Amino acid sequence: MSFRTPLVAALLAFSAGLAAPQPSHAREAPQPPAAAEAGVPAGARPDAAAIASANAQATDVGMAVLRKGGNAFDAAVAVSAALGLVEPESSGIGGGGFFLLRRASDGKTVFVDGRERAPLASTRDMFIDPATGEPRPRQTIDGPLAAGIPGLPAALVHVSENYGRLPLAAALAPTVRMAREGWIFGEKNLAMMGWREAALAADPGASALLLVDGKMPALGARMRNPDYADVLERLGREGFDGFYRGEIAQRLVDGVRAAGGIWTLDDLAQYRVVEREPLVFQHRGATIVTAPPPSSGGVALAQTLQILDGFDAADRPELDRLHLRIEAMRRAYRDRAVHLGDPDFVDVPVALLTHPAYAAGLRAGIHPQKATPSDLLPGVSVVERPDTTHFSIIDAEGNLAAVTQTVNLPYGNAMVIAGTGFLLNNEMDDFAIKAGVPNAFGLVGDDANAIAPGKRPLSSMTPTFVLGDDRVAVIGTPGGSRIISMVIQGVLALDAGASALEMVTQPRVHHQYLPDQVSIEPGALSPELRAGLKARGHAIKEEPRPWGNMQVVVWRLDDGEVEAGADPRWKNVGKGSTGEGGIFR
């Protein structure tokens, strides 16, 4: 890792050299505040609670916990556990997640890192075929070697014990009951299973849990999961030890190793949640509180928005605004590929990468009328489907929770250890298996995100708060590499006055440095905008289907009104709810 010190020095020189001669249309970006400055006016309270999640059954569970007297953090535990049951394609206690929390009583913000860790027996080249020097096909996607050590159960315990008001067992109780009585297999469950049916059928545990006579369940089928209920009850009684030590831990290790994996009891016993300082910066008069590494999302969000802050975007035509956003994202994703990794293992230059002077240097390299080919930017050389899930919560006290959690690809590694009731993740694919080789989402990485024992893989998950003078918003989404661009677009829409529903509904545009193309949803851009971008040198690729599943809640500070916006791309699946008449006050 010694290469990083001169690299940081060189980048500092680079940013300092470019910051001075800003183009005439630019203005200096505001200095980022300290994390302690983030907040809303003292005494401000919303009229009611609001929850937006990717599944109506989970939203209803969160609302039920609020009715019992729980706060936003109890509701976050409840919704998280419920999504693990009713959205197994996207998340669960066999995976991990990030909890971004803000406590209203003192304005404390904290980032709870429940990301998975590489097993202690992992090695840098464990997925490389020594004969060819190339990654072995699908070993990071299917089967026991693909799974990192789960972090979500530890995060649920930590959030409940440190920030919740109810006992953990009370927050988990609605999901325990639903697991025993049955949940409804829906449209998104079915669609995502189409990608992974063969892999699920090949694993006895997954087939027994999720398939009916070896085939996909019928839409609307009632699915029961008593094993999941048992595990949650044990977690509620015993806390951390109920999952990471004792009977469940032994069952997991025995099952993984019998299938050819490398987990040990020490891997589970040594897992720890990490509380990290959120990344905080200013954008157009609002304070943005977002995810620090091992998420790459907050750094890329800060870079992109601070680059754009130097342009008088409001006075520019739509084509100019779109071109500048694409160019800003190109540069942010480039830095993601080179510098980002687990901060407990590598020196991630967060202060440099998120400094307004560095953004000014990147901004100076943007031509206002021409695309910059990605291969002209220094960086790595190159020889996320709608999985993951997000939910947003505001309670009637003003507590905030933005939670993004995942098992990585749909239905994780397609493996269920008998008697546990949940899928394991395939987060090992989120490491840079080989420098410059794209992962399943097309993202490339370098040595900063290489595999190491106990290391957390880099993530794009970007749970975010926007604390403005007039509105507070809680934002996040699944979508693999496209998470960051969607959150960027959501923040910019909020700037323009969009409602929660308008924020999650808007057509999406994405660029991630490599491949060097602008991805758009079907019909997202008018023929005129497409022609204008092509004339400036952008390659446009219209994807065959929409992406993402953004969940947003917004609180208006002037009158206390709250609104919840659930992404409509999955019709009749997600749900945004508010506590009418302030019933949760």
Quick structural summary:
By secondary structure, the protein is of the alpha+beta class.
What are the salient characteristics of this protein?
7-stranded antiparallel sheet; alpha+beta
Structural category is alpha+beta
How would you name the oligomeric state of the polypeptide chains in this document? single chain
Arithmetic mean of pLDDT: 90
How many beta-strand elements?
18
Q: Note the main sheet.
A: 7 strands, antiparallel
The shape is: globular
Q: Provide the low-confidence segments as ranges.
A: 1-38, 381-386, 581-585
Can you walk through the features of this model?
This protein is an alpha+beta fold and 585 residues long. Helices cover 35% and strands 14% of the residues. A hairpin with a 7-residue loop joins strand 13 (509-510) and strand 14.
